Amino acid sequence: GEVCTMINKKYREFLPSMQSAEDLVSQVDGLSSSIDLLKAGIENEVQRDLNIAVAEFTELKQQLERDTLVLSVLKKLQEFDTAIKEYNTSLLEKKYVAAAQQLEKARSSLKTLESRKGFELKILKALGTELTVQTQNMLYHLGEEWQKLAVWKLPSSKDSSSLESAMHLELHLRAVPPKEEEIAGPPVAAVLQAFAVLGELRAKLKAFGQLLLKYILKPLISYPSLQPFTEEQSDVLVLRFKSEEPNLDHSSPMEVFDKIKLVFEVLHEHLLNVPLEQPVEEKKDCRVQLTELLGDIIWEELSDCLIQNCLVNSIPTNSSKLEQYIEVIKATEEFEEALKNMQFLKGDTTDLLKYARNVNSHFANKKCQDVIVAARNLMTSEIHNTVKITPDSCVALPVLPDPGAGDRLKTQKTSQLLRNDMVNLENETKLSQYTFSLPTCRISSSVEKLMELAYQTLLEATASTDQCCVQLFYSVRNIFQLFYDVVPTYHKENLQKLPQLAAIHHNNCMYIAHHLLTLGHQFRYRLTNILCDGAATFVDLVPGFRRLGMECFLAQMRVQKGEILERLSSARNFSNMDDEENYCAASKAIRQVLHQLKRLGKVWQDVLPVNVYCKAMGTLLNTALSEIVTRIAALEDISAEDADRLYSLCRTMVEEGPRVFTPLPEDDKNKKYQEEVPVYVQKWMTFKELMIILQANLQEIVDQWADGKGPLAAEFSAAEVKSLIRALFQNTERRAAALAKIK
Q1: What is the DSSP-derived secondary structure letter of residue 214?
Q2: pLDDT, mean of residues 420-449
Q3: Are the C-beta atoms of residues 221 and 310 closer than 8 Å to each other?
Q4: 20 to 30 A Cα–Cα from 68, which one of 101, 408, 451, 522?
């Protein structure tokens, strides 16, 4: 009864709807005995006479249920009240774990009450409010204690991410007192355990972990000069940084691991080495290390940061340094082992270690990326910086490993030169040393470097692991694919506008095609074992490069041809040369064409291989001569004065034309090519014959024709010769006789 009066007194204002306190008291007192009576009643009477008892039984049963329900509600209210009282007592004594457990008890009583259907008491809402207030109160006290345990002195907010600001950071940890002196305040364990009981521990640790990452762990990874150290001040341990001159831009993984290990050791010893009871609902082994909880929260972000800012930089760039990388893998293993011993990490191998162990593939990726970046830079550099190559030119190459030696062999240091004309094809047949030689010409120095890069990379491939070898081989193929795609588009305008660049690009493509013929061959022993049957070749790329060079140069030739015809079109069809104005126009057109050819002869000089040069210049001179012949042969009337003037225009072409052939810088060496002009200019003899006709009389023309067997007949058709005779001579019997002989 005493319970009831107390509850009643305390919550009077909430219970207008319940029976008076006396009813409750008598009900509670009488319930036990009335239950016994009911039981006996049911058993005896029902058995005695079922029919009479059915109605009575139902009534008694309902009453029993009502009574039981009321009793259980009162019990729960009493439990709630007791829990809140005991919680208050414990909180005052700073017994945080006990206090937290009482709060959880009160919470579960309230849950049970709320789940009772048919008893929606107004009191429950008030109890809920009370519980929330007390929980917040408790969390506030715990928060205060937690802040005393770990005090952050953060750098000013202005720049939280510089080396300078990192130097201002301090973390103060309250030294854990020896066992007998625990009066000083609740031990770390109690505070954290109470958080755990209230289900707030993870949130607290998450906030702590974020500060730890931002202000301590990440700066240690980013700034090689930071060194963590600790010092004791009265009863506090201070963790902060000092700065030392770093020896490198990036610290080695070993150094970074050691620094981070130190931080974790300090935390482990002074703050986190606390086993916790987990709330009982998680029926499994409920002791869990605090370190493990923190590790769970920060490990993923920490290991990502270590990989990106530390391990990535430590991946070697050439295969000779791969050996030494074992140290890094070992350091990574030891680092993880240490964290496992402190229980920051659970059992499995983590991403960090997987990354370190996978060094071969990272090495290959990094190497391939470096190669492609270097190649791209070369391709986008200026084309017109050239070097001269000759049949004796070489690609400077370190010695290739002996075919049988396989992986054991580290590349020797001596250097052998690969000559353009020396390719030993197993001596199955002796080839002329010039079969594979390149003619003398100029190529872009960037292309020469590109070729060296390709050879270097393949050489590196032969000294690498299989996986890496395959990747490097394909990245060399990619270099050439990239050239094929990038250069023509990147330099498009200049290749169209500047005849010299078109010529250099033509040479570049031929030079690359030339090397691609034999490139795979030199490395075949090492590469073919790994790449499927003889795939270690570049020969398939050769036609594409030849076509690329040719197309670019032919496009330039079309432009030049167009300009020649454009200039000649202003020569007024070479008709009526006795008119001064017409003669001037024709004469000017001829001079312009010769000037254009002379300029081309200069810009291609020493650039194009001599045979290509002569063919190109010959083709263009031929275009001019051919056009002049066509125009003159089409004239219907040529006076004597016209004929003389046309002859002198043609003579200028024949005298000046060969002089545009200057393939070599040394003048005396060009004579030979100027004398060979008829070989390169298809219409040369036709042009000479036209000049003879312009000066000849009828008899001489008939003699030149010689019944269709003479030199004139070799160059002109009968119809053309007849047309010229009609234009040049008046209609006489002699002309008719001459015409009759031309057939």
Answers
A1: I
A2: 63
A3: yes
A4: 101
Q: Which domain holds residue 239?
A: 154-280+287-314
Q: What is the pLDDT of residues 154-210, one digit of tens each?
A: 777 666 567 777 777 788 877 555 444 444 455 677 787 888 778 888 888 888 888
What are 560-608's pLDDT values in tens digits?
Answer: 999 999 999 988 888 888 889 999 999 999 999 999 999 999 999 999 9
Indicate if 39 and 137 belong to the same structural domain.
yes
The model's pLDDT over 322-337, given as tens digits with 9 standing for 90+, comes to 777 888 888 888 888 8
Tokens of 639: 């006076």
Instruction: Give the amino acid at 607.
Output: V
Question: Do 361 and 446 have their domain in common?
Answer: yes
Are residues 97 and 70 located together in one domain of the fold? Answer: yes
Same domain as 296, residue 195: yes
Report whether pLDDT(29) > 90.
no
Q: For 616-631, b where at least 16 C-beta lie within 10 A, e where not — what string? A: bbbebbbbbbbbbbeb
Alpha helices in 604-659 (DSSP H): 610-633, 640-656
Do residues 13 and 66 both lie within one domain? yes
Question: Both tokens of residue 13?
Answer: 């204002």
For the chain, what's the residue count? Answer: 743
Cβ contact 402:462 at 8 Å: no
- pTM, whole model, 2 decimals? 0.65
Residue 363 covered by a domain: yes
Q: In degrees to the nearest 10, what's the CA dihedral of 387, 391, 395, 398?
A: -150
Considering its fold, how many domains does the chain have in total?
Answer: 4
Name the domain boundary from 147, 179, 203: 147
The rounded distance, in Å, linking the Cα atoms of 24 and 11 is 14
pLDDT of residue 566: 95
* Block residue for tokens 């140069």: 553
User: Which stretch of DSSP H or E encloses residue 534?
Assistant: none
Q: Do residue 134 and residue 163 come from a single domain?
A: no
Distance, in Å, from the CA atom of 218 to the CA atom of 302, rounded to the nearest integer, reads: 8
